[in-house]
Write a structure and sequence with these properties.
Rossmann fold, six-stranded mixed β-sheet, about 550 residues, about 50% helix, 21 helices, three-stranded antiparallel β-sheet
Length: about 550
């Protein structure tokens, strides 16, 4: 759950009334009254602008209020356009704060921080702007600066519940659950009607293992979320979406799957405009799909070891897939051996592993869904994939062994979308580590000498960097994505029994007391040396602390 930005006190600047009776009686108050419905506010302000009777600071005021109307609708492009025009006409704290808030809602945190900085330069010191800048720092994972801004906001305005709440969220992100609970309790004491605080306290109770309290707070959050306070710039539906998704996760943790399905379905109904709500709805969509399918049949006695609810509860789980025996594109000899080596290493350090070798799309989806169903009760989830992978329009896809290109075929629907796996794992109380030894080359390129060009709809190089890891995603235990090579580059399959990346990973992943990012640094150094700089592993992390896969 991403936001809760505050509006500065909105003071309607005096406007010389336009010449018509209608504008005197209706347009001015409709445009510059905070409680005016969004469409009426936008319409009134637009009509005033069209009269062309205002200029300078008065016209800036009209653009500001129209931006407020757009903000109520969650139309951040129009917010930014109108706020920018207001700044051109007459800069003010309020308009910089509003534009910074819109950039934050779009996930552009650095630009938002720049606007909040400009707002603070215009003075006087503002608890609201410190609070909002703290949110942007928190979204970036800069928890030290976020805490500093929340501290300043609380010092200036000690009775502002949102600053207490968001400082608590930041403490929870750092693993200080008791400190987080104390701050959020204070937020609820100051404002018992604060739905977002109830939602965040629900998350903390779930992280502490108190599922009954998590559900109770989630239920109260859902009740309160129907009418958020007017002075908070919450995107439409965002409060209730977050409350429903986190209560659903608590229901899942308890095993009350019908109640979880109902909440996930309800969370998908509001229109989501901000990145946080979109991320929550992506999670709701995946989790609802998982719960709506029949449970997989019991495994045969001779089947490979996999996960069970009992084994997964409070434990560490992994999904390991190696695809090499491709039917219609270039086969790869090493991925099955890579996957077996990594699965063995993970089992040896206590992971419950869902393993699949040379999977077609249907089986690959089934294995992935089996893992995602059970991972909701795990504290650490690892995904390892070896095989072909491609990027299409900046999204990464894992390629099953039965992939085939034919005229008019829908290539995307024939693969597995990595973003859906991320959405299914997105949760504030779990650490997620995804390791992809993929994109050894472009599997769809024609054989050499054919003279044919690869399809433009498919990338000829490696996987894309996650453009928004941490943007819109929940700010909880954190996620790390490790790639066998740099974004857009090709990973090598290798001449030995394993790829260069998987060989190095299998040697280091089980090292006792080795923090995961230090482990990946060792893997990177070994791969760079072994490939003579042709391959440089790369990772992107929103982890909030040290993570150890093998016990110290």
């Amino acid at each position: 759950m991403r936001r809760f930005l505050l509006l500065l006190p909105l003071l309607a600047l005096p406007l010389a009334q336009p010449a018509t009776a209608q504008s005197r009686a209706q347009l001015g108050p409709l445009c510059t009254t905070e409680t005016t419905p969004a469409d009426q506010m936008i319409s009134a302000c637009t009509k005033i602008i069209a009269l062309k009777v205002f200029s300078g600071g008065q016209l800036a005021t009209i653009y500001f209020w129209r931006a407020v109307g757009w903000n109520k609708k969650g139309d951040y492009a129009h917010v930014i356009a109108d706020a920018t025009e207001a700044i051109r006409l007459q800069p003010s704290q309020a308009v910089y704060n509003l534009r910074g808030s819109a950039y934050y809602d779009k996930g552009e945190d650095d630009i938002a921080i720049a606007d909040f900085n400009d707002a603070l330069k215009l003075g006087p010191p503002s608890a609201t702007i410190y609070h909002n800048r703290g949110n942007a720092y928190r979204s970036k994972g800069d928890y030290a600066n976020a805490l500093g801004d929340y501290d300043q906001a609380i010092k200036l305005s000690p009775r502002e519940a949102y600053s207490w709440q968001n400082r608590g969220i930041t403490k929870a992100a750092q693993g200080d659950l008791d400190g987080a609970l104390s701050d959020i309790n204070e937020a609820i004491r100051l404002n018992p009607s604060l739905a977002s605080a109830m939602t965040n306290r629900s998350v903390i109770w779930r992280a502490k293992g108190n599922i009954e309290r998590a559900i109770a707070d989630g239920s109260e959050a859902v009740r309160l979320a129907q009418n958020p306070p007017a002075n908070v710039m919450t995107p439409p539906g965002s409060v209730v979406i977050a409350a429903l998704v986190h209560r659903a996760l608590a229901y899942e943790a308890k095993g009350e799957f019908d109640a979880a399905k109902s909440d996930y379905a309800a969370a998908l109904k509001p229109t989501a405009s901000d990145s946080g709500s979109k991320a929550n709805q992506a999670t709701a969509k995946v989790r609802l799909s998982l719960l709506s399918e029949p449970a997989p049949p019991p495994q045969r006695a001779d089947a490979p070891a996999s996960a069970s609810p009992a084994a997964a509860t409070g434990q560490r789980m992994a999904l390991v897939i190696g695809n090499g025996a491709y039917t219609h594109v270039q086969a790869l000899p090493n991925p099955p051996r890579d996957a077996r080596a990594i699965a063995k290493s993970l089992r040896e350090i206590g992971f419950t592993v869902v393993e699949g070798i040379d999977l077609d799309r249907a089986t690959m989806q089934a294995k992935t869904r089996e893992f995602l169903r059970e991972a909701t009760r795990a504290q650490v989830a690892v995904v390892f994939y070896a095989g072909h992978g491609v990027q299409i329009d900046g999204r990464n896809y894992l390629v099953p062994t039965d992939i085939a290109l034919s005229g008019g075929s829908d290539v995307v629907s024939a693969m597995v979308d990595m973003d859906q796996i991320l959405a299914g794992l997105d949760d504030q109380v779990r650490t997620n580590i995804l390791i992809l030894d993929a994109c050894r080359n472009n599997p769809f390129a024609p054989p050499e000498g054919t003279g044919q060009a690869p399809s433009r709809s498919l990338s000829a190089t490696g996987l894309a960097a996650p453009a928004s890891l941490g943007n819109g995603a929940t700010s909880g235990a954190g996620t790390l994505i490790a790639f066998a090579t740099a974004p857009g580059k090709v990973a090598l399959d290798g001449d030995g029994e394993n790829s260069p990346f998987s060989a190095a990973l299998s040697r280091h992943i089980g090292t006792p007391g080795l923090e995961v990012q230090q482990m990946l640094t060792r893997v990177r150094a070994e791969v760079v040396a072994g490939t003579k700089n042709r391959q440089v592993p790369w990772s992107n992390s929103s982890l909030l602390g040290e993570v150890y896969l093998a016990a110290k």
